Amino acid sequence: MSSTIVEKPSFLQSKIGGLPRPFWALWGGTLVNRLGTMVIPFTGVYLTQSRGLSLTAAGLAMGVFGAGSLLSQLLAGVLTDRIGRRATLSGGMLATAAIMLALGYSTSLPAIVASMFVLGLVIDVYRPASNALVADLVSPAERPRAYGLLFWAINLGYAVGMTAGGWLAGQGFVWLFWVDALTSVVFAVLVWRAVPETRPEAHESAGGFGVVLRDRVMIGFTLVALGNALVYSQTMTMLPVAMTKVVKLTPGQFGLAMALNGVLIVIVQPLVSGWLGRRDASRTFALGLAVMGLGFAMTAFVSDTFGLAVTIAVWTAGEIVTAGIPGAVVAALAPAELRGRYAGLFGFSWSLAAVLAPLLGGPLLEIGPRVLWFTIGGVGVLSAAGMLLLGPAIRRR
């Protein structure tokens, strides 16, 4: 009598096994690219200190960057579906490398403003193409885990890149532009060599953005994503201002507390992504949004570094819960030949939030910190409720 012994997969296999090799090439390129993401976080410092621009001129330059990013996602979605995922991603990365160097060597205000607009237009072209590639390469059951792993790579790379970028900036800002350009080229070459083109043949009746805009479920989900993005964008807009100007934390104290966000994501997210991926997407995403809203609402009561760290731990837990879900939902809603456009509309919600967050957050902070943070918390809870309402329609898809 014989028996078959089934080996239980190892911990490492359970976290990274079962995904195709081209996905790991995309993952590796994303990690390398994020390791080199040094220019954008230091743009304001570069424009005012290295190029001697006034605060008004620097604000203008960063404003046109935002305008370019608004167009970027929609344009990239069309290119992803028309010319292909691989060509759009690699081309966008090469264009980013070229314009990074152009900006690094620009000295006049017109040249800087023009470079910033084009940089905003091309720097995130890769996102819809990357999202579509994952949807094409990975089975629906594994997509939440795959998108979660990409989220993890982005955060790991960004944490290391920020640390290295701060040191390099002290050696000379031009180094930031060269490192960012080089890692963009590496990403482009890696994808071109190791990732096959997966764009399906478009049907005559496939249509364009009109199909996306007539998809009520996708429009509803985009509004939920906009709420999510408005909440999260406060981490880069009003949170630093409120903590340093109102609570009177030093930049060092604020940076120390914010480091907890990256540490928790890098340690915890890979451990829970597989389990979260097996849960109902709508309910899980709603839970994450509600927890994020709670964390930001708690910021109204912060008076020291420890209190800030507690709130960061709470909203980071919500961020971890939501990590791999949006990409999987968009992939499920989109016809295969329109995945780029659907991902582009989703990305547009984040670009729009980056523009709206300071415009809305600034006046609210002027009224009072509690008004700002309770409003942001309310946006998170409303987004969670909207996601629950969308749940049945998403499950039918």
UniProtKB/TrEMBL annotation:
Note the Pfam families from the entry: MFS_1 (PF07690)
The record places domain Major facilitator superfamily (MFS) profile at: 22-395
UniProt keyword list = Cell membrane, Membrane, Transmembrane, Transmembrane helix, Transport
Q: Which CDD domains match?
A: MFS_MdtH_MDR_like (cd17329)
Q: What is its main location?
A: membrane
**Entry's transmembrane regions:** 23-47, 53-75, 149-169, 175-195, 216-234, 254-272, 284-302, 308-333, 345-365, 371-391
Q: Keyword Chloroplast: yes or no?
A: no
- How does the protein's chain sit in the membrane according to the entry? Multi-pass membrane protein
InterPro entries registered for this protein in UniProt = MFS, MFS_dom, MFS_trans_sf, MFS_Transporters
Instruction: Tell me if Mitochondrion is a UniProt keyword of this record.
Output: no
**Compartments in which it is found:** Cell membrane
- The molecule here is called MDR family MFS transporter
